[in-house]
Specification:
0% strand, mainly alpha
Amino acid sequence: MKQQSGSVAGYIKQELGFTDADFSKMQQNFLI
């Protein structure tokens, strides 16, 4: 299981069904 590298991103994508685009938007919002 490759759950270690990028575990947070992978977990969010799996559990919430987020796409890379959605995740990118979230990161941009947090950076502001």
